[in-house]
């Protein structure tokens, strides 16, 4: 499935229109991660944020934006790093089918 998709050198989709939940799950498995309902909360949040503002929040605003929308517990750094141990902002965007955030380059 992933072999047919256009992706950049970091594995991010080049064309968001190719995104699906199945693609997100396959990318996560490729990275050694199984997505849960908690992951999906953050992934869908990132898609909605991007759709509204046409960019991702920077690293400083990421947790604050999540706290505002989903609550303090889900916006806590410890919580986000448990979900995405290799970098919450980067990997939430990757699995959401969004571009790599500029602060993660």
Strand and helix map with partners:
Layout lengths: L20 H10 L6 H17 L5 H12 L1 H4 L1 H7 L4 H9 L9
Helix pairs in contact: 2-6
Structure notes:
The chain has 105 residues and is an all-alpha fold. The chain has a single domain (2-98), classed as Arc Repressor Mutant, subunit A (Orthogonal Bundle). The chain contains 6 helices and no strands. It has helices at 21-30, 37-53, 59-70, 72-75, 77-83, 88-96. Helix 2 packs across helix 6. The chain is globular, with a radius of gyration of 13 Å.
Highlighted features:
single chain; 105 residues; mainly alpha; Arc Repressor Mutant, subunit A; 0% strand; globular
Structural class based on helices, strands and sheet pairing: mainly alpha
Largest sheet: none
Number of helices: 6
End-to-end C-alpha gap: 26 Å
CATH superfamily: DsrC protein, C-terminal domain
Per the CATH scheme, the topology name is Arc Repressor Mutant, subunit A
What is the C-level CATH assignment? Mainly Alpha
**Overall domain count:** 1
Radius of gyration: 13 Å
Q: Uncertain segments of ≥5 residues (pLDDT<50)?
A: none
Query: Tell me, what's the shape?
Result: globular
Summarize the amount of helix as a percent range. 55-70%
Please sum up the structure shown:
By secondary structure, the protein is mainly α.
């Amino acid at each position: 499935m992933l072999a047919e998709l256009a992706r950049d050198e970091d594995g991010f989709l080049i064309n968001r229109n190719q995104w699906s939940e199945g693609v997100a799950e396959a990318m996560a498995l490729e990275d050694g991660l199984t997505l849960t309902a908690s992951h999906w909360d953050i992934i869908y949040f990132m898609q909605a944020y991007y759709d509204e503002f046409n960019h991702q929040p920077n690293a400083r605003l990421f947790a604050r934006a999540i706290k505002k929308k989903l609550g303090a517990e889900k916006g806590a750094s410890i919580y986000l790093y448990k979900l995405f141990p290799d970098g919450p902002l980067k990997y939430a965007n990757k699995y959401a089918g969004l571009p790599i955030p500029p602060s993660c380059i």
